[in-house]
Amino acid sequence: MTQATISTHQGLRIATRLSNHWKHKFNISQTDDEFVVHMSGADVRLIPADDTLMICIVRNEGSDDPERPFDEITLQNVIAVHIDRMAGESFTYEWTK
Questions:
Q1: Could you give the CA distance from residue 7 to residue 3 in angstroms, rounded to a whole number?
Q2: Pairing, β 52-59 against β 27-30
Q3: Cα–Cα distance, 24 to 89 (Å, whole number)
Q4: What is the C-alpha to C-alpha distance for residues 75 and 73, in angstroms, rounded to an integer?
Q5: Measured distance CA(78)–CA(21) in Å, rounded
Q6: Starting at the edge strand that comes first in sequence, how are the strands of the sheet with 35-39 ordered?
Q7: Among 8, 44, 46, 87, which is disulfide-ready with 15 (CB 3.0 to 4.6 Å)?
Q8: DSSP-derived 3-state class of residue 55
Q9: What pLDDT sits at residue 19?
């Protein structure tokens, strides 16, 4: 698992907007605590809190798509660009394993 946490008071708004943006392309599940975007090769968990948004990339080899190989660095960049766009601001992402 790889994760990053950004400081924001808009975590729920960003997670909701990003889930809505991606729901035409990926399956999305939601609980009271998190949104999960089920992508090819990984599940992306968006966990909003009062002053943060945690992003977790959980590798899921069972959902690999042979036409689109899993690339963690590319996925991190795609997520960051989309979160920044949904928020209307740029964040610093420090991805850790």
A1: 14
A2: unpaired
A3: 24
A4: 5
A5: 13
A6: 2-7, 52-59, 42-48, 35-39, 27-30
A7: 46
A8: strand
A9: 97
pTM over 0.90: yes
AA identity, residue 67 = E
Quick one: pLDDT at residue 9? 97
- pLDDT score of 35: 98
Structure tokens at 67: 């036409």
Closest CA to 23 of 45, 40, 41, 38: 38
Which H or E run contains 18? Answer: helix 11-22
pLDDT averaged over 10-residue windows placed end to end, the chain, 97 residues: 97 97 95 95 96 96 78 95 97 97
